[in-house]
Write a structure and sequence with these properties.
This protein is of the alpha/beta class and 228 residues long. The protein has two domains: 5-124, Response regulator (Rossmann fold, 3-Layer(aba) Sandwich); 127-223, Orthogonal Bundle (Arc Repressor Mutant, subunit A), CATH 1.10.10. The protein has helices at 13-25, 36-42, 61-71, 85-94, 106-124, 153-164, 172-180, 189-203; strands at 5-9, 29-33, 49-53, 55-56, 59-60, 76-80, 98-101, 127-130, 133-136, 141-144, 147-149, 170-171, 213-216, 220-223. The chain has a five-stranded parallel β-sheet, sandwiched between helices. It has a four-stranded antiparallel β-sheet with strand order 8-9-10-11. A hairpin with a 4-residue loop joins strand 9 and strand 10. Helix 6 packs across helix 7 (172-180). It is globular and about 50 Å long. It starts with a strand and ends in a 5-residue tail after the last strand.
Amino acid sequence: MTDKHILVIEDDRALNAGIAFALGREGYAVHSAYTLVEAQMHLKQKMNLILLDINLPDGDGRDFLKNVLSEQPVPVLLLTARDSEADMLKGFQAGCDDYITKPFSMPVLLAKIAAVLKRSEGVSRQIYVSGGLVYDFEKKCLTQNGTPAELTALECRLLEFFLHNRGIVLTRDMLLERVWDVDERFVEDRTLNVTIRRLRMKVEENPEHPEHIKTVFGMGYKWEDGQS
């Protein structure tokens, strides 16, 4: 049996029960909630993943997602009936790791869950390791081949956002909104370029040929684990 706990937040009781049954059969420990208030109660226990419906009786799941991620790092898979590009971007901007559009098949959902959990394994232990790169989430401490590298608060937020979304293309707008827009202040694109360059100097063995922070031309950036 797995020790991974998954919280299913879905107000459709039949769907919630179906998902819980499928997850339980795979060995996951399942917790079901039908409202955001109920979900908050379940979060007193550490979860390894949250399946979150967007439209819930007592609020928007994306607002709930932002609040949860401000308190604890946990992978989130959005369940949504909305499949427009704008809605997907709003979900990623809120901090979700992936999404699945209703109606969906259970095998596809299980595959997405497995993929998200695999991506988040290093993060869930609060210490990320890739080759000579080590980052301690609790201590905000980064070392590269045993040598400490000092990070600013801004660089920590940017690095952690990358690590919580490994393998996912993050647009410039997503980075600016999630990492900089703490006080709803306008931030220029140039600021992002400079901060990315400074962070690469600290996490890459060769910043000119980055292994981790990859530029996805015309879209944004993506974190890759590199060679272990």
